Amino acid sequence: AATNAGKFGAKEEAMSSEEILARYDNYYSGATDWDTAQQPAHDEHNNAAAAERYFTLITDFFEYGWGDAFHMAPLRPDWSFKRSMAYWEQNFVLTAGIQRDMKVADLGMGIGGPMRRVVEFTGANMTGVTICQHQVNRANQITSTLPEYIQDRTEYLVGDYNDLPSSMKPSSYDAAYFMESLSHSEDRAIPLAQAAKIVKPGGIVAGWQWMLKPAFDYDNPRHMDLKRGMEYGGGLRNLNKPDARHEEYKRAGLEVLQSYDMGTDAIERGHLGWWKALTTGVDLPSRLTSSHWGRKLTMGTVKILETIGVAEPGTLRTALMLEHCGFSAATAGELGIFTPAWVTIARVPTNKNDKEHQKRIEGLQATIDLALKAKK
Fold first, then answer.
1. What is the pTM of this model?
2. What is the DSSP string of 257-295?
3. pLDDT per residue as tens digits for the range 100-133
4. Beta 125-130 vs 103-107: how paired, if at all?
């Protein structure tokens, strides 16, 4: 059991960071090695158990480096990092058609930063789901200090988006979205089918997704090294290309309406590439935290804190794991073979039949072991 309460990196959960890391690494054997053909093996939980351990480990680091939104976005040169992030969140929300008083689900909510801004921007009623209890605790803590307007329109649930909580009834939501959360599953059709289940006929299911771009070459060892680095350091599995992703939407019973790289779209509008946050940064806060040298500074600080006993053992290894992802993602972005900002807008068929869709879900779920049910 953990005995590091009060130290940086410590969690409410019973296991220490070192114990969680050991279990997490089992899901990505060999992933930290370069110049190897080895890729992460098939995961029977659709990567849900690995994602739970991953976010228990990294949530505090992400909040330090990125704020309350655990995603990347294009950057406008004359704006702060946070303003650019919020702008593209609003762009995504408008594209998804989210409006006042709609009932919307954020599937893979993190600590709820984006969904709280959706409430502020649109007046929608939001339900967020994450598999990580630590994130729900943090989301509730943050929200308790906000205006009642936000509190009354937000709900946070612990749940596996491969098998949503029973309180989220079929055809009861106007829309659902995944904001950089969908690629934490190995087979995206399973969580997408869950979204299609809870959204009303004709409603929208939107994805802001990590995606391999068409230029990615599966026969290029360097490309495959970067893919593996992003998957291990990002808690991801089986990154694929748009055509393969569209097939996952189709298998989930969804109709794809739009699909494009928001990152390329932004550059054409005069914004900087999203990878700038990982390389040079765009303002003082991002240069000190998320940039290459900012991450080096964090790792040096964490090493000192862990050595003197202020940070929990395993905290430095967690920082190194995130650096593995940051380097791989930035390099892949500069090469034009990857984006974390691929947007897909899909529609639930207007003739959806809940009973027939449940049969589709049962067929998809039969291919995996549901992580939270396996715990019970």
1. 0.88
2. EEEEEHHHHHHHTTPBPTTHHHHT-SSHHHHHTTSHHHH
3. 999 999 999 999 999 999 999 999 999 999 999 9
4. parallel
